[in-house]
Amino acid sequence: MPVNDELLERFLAVDTTALCDADRTTRVVHSAIRPRSAATRILGPAFTVRCREDFLAVLRAVETAEPGDVIVVDGGARETALGGEMFARAALARSLGGIVVDGGYRDMSYVSTCALPVYSRFVTPRAGTASQLGELQVPVTCGGVAVNPGDLVLADDEGLIVVDPQRVESLLDAALAVKNTERRVIALLDGGATLSDAFNVADHVEALGRGEHSVLQALGSG
């Protein structure tokens, strides 16, 4: 799914926390895969890679992915660098959307200031070999979640999530509703209200105490 300016603008109006609140089944990449770059926000289709202890497939991906694509590398969660400064520079030059590696990354003196979002599980100086083809554009696992070619990868300072492209628009709508509710609650709290003034705390606790199903929700949110 191509990412246009309108979709990006809608993502900028929310965050991954609101997206997860809107759908608790959202695929959340393990928090061990952390941002290593100055830029953290990602929105783009996954260009998937599977490799082990060898970065040739990542190089191939950087050279063949389309502008806006996010390279998602299933490196088997091994502490071997599958990318570094040169890959990040090349990805920037090709206008890719980011690099996410379930494995190692290196050259932090550059990457930490890089405008390309780069995420990895490890930082390590030891690079892999460059003698195995690996696999491109196949279903992979990254940070404990399934990622298919073309799935949308979204990230910000809170973390990384993966979304079916067919569902992203409805999910963004739901996330915006969450953010609007949050803004109303924040306005109440800033005005001196308590959490019990903003949420159905008493009714919720009483219902749970009776063994009934109940949902904690902001008052006036339906």
Q: Which helices and strands, and how do they pair?
A:
Layout: H1 5-12, H2 16-22, E1 27-28, E2 34-35, E3 42-50, H3 56-64, E4 70-74, H4 85-93, E5 98-105, H5 108-111, E6 118-123, E7 135-136, E8 140-142, E9 145-147, E10 152-156, E11 159-163, H6 168-190, H7 195-198, H8 201-209
Parallel strand pairs: 3-4, 4-5, 5-6
Antiparallel strand pairs: 1-11, 2-6, 3-7, 3-10, 8-9, 10-11
Largest sheet: 9 strands, mixed
Estimate the mean pLDDT confidence: 96
Helix content: 25-40%
> What is the gyration radius calculated from CA atoms?
20 Å
Distance between the termini: 33 Å
* CATH class call of the largest domain: Alpha Beta
CATH homologous superfamily of the largest domain - what is it? Ribonuclease E inhibitor RraA/RraA-like
Strand content: 15-25%
The overall number of domains is 2
Second CATH tier, the architecture of the largest domain: 3-Layer(bba) Sandwich
Remind me, CATH topology of the largest domain?
Glucose Oxidase, domain 1
Helix count, per DSSP?
A: 8
Enzyme class: lyase
EC number: 4.1.1.112, 4.1.3.17
InterPro entries: RraA/RraA-like, RraA/RraA-like_sf
Family: Belongs to the class II aldolase/RraA-like family.
Q: What labels would you give this structure?
A:
222 residues, alpha/beta, 2 domains, nine-stranded mixed β-sheet, two-stranded antiparallel ribbon, elongated, Putative 4-hydroxy-4-methyl-2-oxoglutarate aldolase, RraA/RraA-like_sf, EC 4.1.3.17
